[in-house]
Structure formats: C-alpha cells, structure tokens
Fold this protein.
Amino acid sequence: MFTITHNVALVSFLFNLLYSSFAYAEKRSYIVYMGEHQHGGTEEDFARATRSHHDFLASFLGSYEEARNAIFYSYDKHINGFAARLDDDIVDEIKKHPSVISIFRDKAKKLLTTHSWSFMDLENTHSGQSLSPDLREVKQYPLIKGQDAKLLHADDFDANLCALDTWNATKVKGKILVCLRGGVDRFLRSFIARDLGAAGLVLCNDDTNVNDLYPTPYVIPTAYIDFTAGSCHESIFQVGGKASSAVAEFSSRGPNYITPEILKPDITGPEVEIIAAWTEGSPPGPVSQALYDLRYSSFYMIDGTSMATPHVSGLAGLLKTLYPHWSPAMIRSAIMPTARTRDNTGHRIIDLDTMQKTDPFSYGSGHLRPTRAMDPGLVYDLRACSQINLFDPNYKCPKTFNVFDLNYPSISIPQLNGTVILTRTLKNVGKPSTYVAHVRSPAGFSITVEPTTLKFGESEEKSFTVSVTSTTAGSGSLMGSFMFGVLTWADGQHYVRSPIAVSTPYIL
C-alpha cells in the first residue's frame, strides 16, 4: 500500500513539474507597440517612459516587480513600446487596451546582406544565398569557349555569342561555357545551357559593354567578367580583381537646376545588385521571364536609388539612436563630410556612364562610411529659420538671409563673377580639439578661409568665412563650366570634408 501511494505521489509530482515547465515554456517574446513618444528627449524623459512601461505591464501581471522581470527592452526614445516575455492570455488582454496599437511576436530575422558590409567598411560575418543551384562538386570544371563548342554548320561569330542553335551538346556537357555578351537574351541562354548539360556560364563583356554588369536570376551558376578583368579571346582565361565602388549609369547627377547654390547629390550608397525582399507572387526578374521561369523566391538582386535609400536611412537611424539629441541636419552632416571619394581599391571612384573619374555632381560628398559617421568630430547644424527662409521668401527671419550662408556641408557657387564671401558654422560633437583648414581650390578660382585654425571646447560652436574669387580672364574653355575643389578641417584624427563646386558666367 505504501508503494502505491509513493508511486501516486511521484507521478503527481512529475506531472506538476512538467506542467509548470510547460507553462513557463509558453512565455514568448512579444513587442508591444504604443505609437510614438511626445517627450522632450532628455534623460529624465527616457527614464519616465521606461517607468510608464513597467506600470502599464504591472496592471496586467499584478506587480511592478513581475513587470520589470518580464520586460527586457524598453523603447524609450522614439518608438513608444517595449519587448517582454509574455504568455498568450496576457497578450490577449493587452491587445484590448486602447493605448496599444499592435502587439506581435519578436522573431529573429536571418540577414541576407552580403557585399553592402564591405562596401561600407563594416565587418561581414554573414553568407549569402543563390537563386541557382551550387556546382555539385568542389572541383575544377573545364572551360570551353562558344566557338570551340559549336556545331559544324554554325558561324564562328554567332558561336562566340553562344547564339541559339550553335552549341554541340556533347562538347558543352559538364563544362563551363564561356560566351561574349550580346545577341542573345541572357536569361534564355542560361536555360538552354542547363538543358544541354553545361555546369555553368561565364559571360564576358566586350569593348561595347565594357563594365556593365546586370543581375539576372540565372538557372545555373553564372559569372560576369567586365572588359578590364578578362577577355573571352585569350587562350588562357584568367579572372581576378576586387569589387569596388562606382557610380551607376542610371544614378541621378548634378548640378541642382532648381537651387544651384546647393550642391546635389548629397551622398552615394550601395544601389547595384542589392539583395532585397521580393514578392513570392511572381518569379524574380523581368515580367517576360515569368513565361518560362517557374521559380519563386523571397529575395532578389535589385538596382536603383530605392536600394541606396535604405542604406542611407539605416545609417541615419543608427546615428539617431546613438545621439538622440542630434537634429536631422547634424545627422546629414555626420554622413556627408565623412564619406570617401576613393573606392575600396584606393582609386578615384569612376562613373560607369563615361568610364572616367567622376566628380561631386556624380557622387556628392562621396560613398558613405558608417564607422566614420559615428565619430565625425565636427558637424554643420542648420537652424529651422534659415531652412524656412530658403523655401519661403515671404518669411522673415530675425536676420537677413543669404542662400550662400545656408549652413550646408558642401559649397556650390554658380555663375561667379568676382568674389563671394560665405559663412559656415561648425559644432564640435567630439572631444576638445584644434582643427586646421586645408583647401584645394577649383581650377580658375582662388579660395581663402578665415581663420585657418579653430580651437574647440566640448560642444562648442565656431564660425569661419570662405572667400571665393574667380581668377579667369573672362573667356576660354572654363566659361560656364563647373570646376571642383574641397575644403577639409582636420585635427589628425577627424577629417571633415566639404566638396566645392564653382562656375563662371556663360558668355554668348
């Protein structure tokens, strides 16, 4: 009898233990979103917001202590809400509260970004994925050029393009087919190569395509070779090199025709072949490919300004999180003057539209560098009054306003005839330091900065003037053309760089 009672007690104990463990396991991470904060942005405001979250959850859990233990993150600066471990019953109750906009599971997201990290000088510990299958074995696959894989009746020129109906399936099978760009739809060519048993494709640009590299959702592993990296006509096929920054052909360019006194664009970010979200309602790529491409994916490589924008806005969000009191102008100023104008191979950024070294009308201040932007040293802040006066001439600020004095991180002076003196104000957001001005004047102009040295205390602001004078004789090839220079304030650790664009009047 004792044994039975003991066993019953043991079973009851185990059941209670399992039940309590199961109940605990049911608690999952949720984010409770309550809109945005209306506070003033001080440390006291942040602390008050956190306490309000604890008070809110305590009303559901029964005690302030339980609420503090449940909440593991409080969104106290911009977004109003918190993240907490909650069970389903509590979640259902919280959903009913009028202050709650939404509540949803806090799920880990797998990062698919690959090259954006290296292009922005950040560490990358993540690997990418491919729409086409990997090569089945880790080995060296033989290369065969289109001309060497052709049928007897095929034309050599068409065969080098890997034109349709020119390939000998026996010669192609198990090899990587090397073709010249042009003449044949790239996507369709990969389908046919796969059906003939090719292991992969290499598409080589010629002197017409040069460095145009377009992302395409191929069905077999495919590589592009730009004109400067390799040639399909070489008997020994060698490929090497390192990806570097360049301005895409479709990227917008200056000057700013509406307000030429403000240099545009501001900044350059990654915008070519970006792995981005894609609807699974249609296959990736152009609509025309959907006729014979039945694959579906949640990601795809996309080009365009819409891809650069999230990189830049993400950096802006990072800076706002690090420095909640910074104004939008300060954030922009941290990003622009810390950008680079050389690619990650150390050469000047080129323009893929002209294949020439480019200028601020193509890349603005340069390619963004998040690490540098987080510690810019100095920034150009912008008062609301000057911005309103710029766009509304009827609004009268306390002082007279000159568009050249807009405290922008770049300088643009169109149609200069004589001398222009403009003023800028820098704010120290780092440690006390002394900065020295370094100027490279545009061809045909002289630039003087006064003073040439600025000594900053903590959070101190100081102003300086820039005097720009035209030194051209009034005619010649420079007339009406913008020339470029740069002003850099440096303290040995920080380099606050402002591009300068100046033109003289057109002479008819």
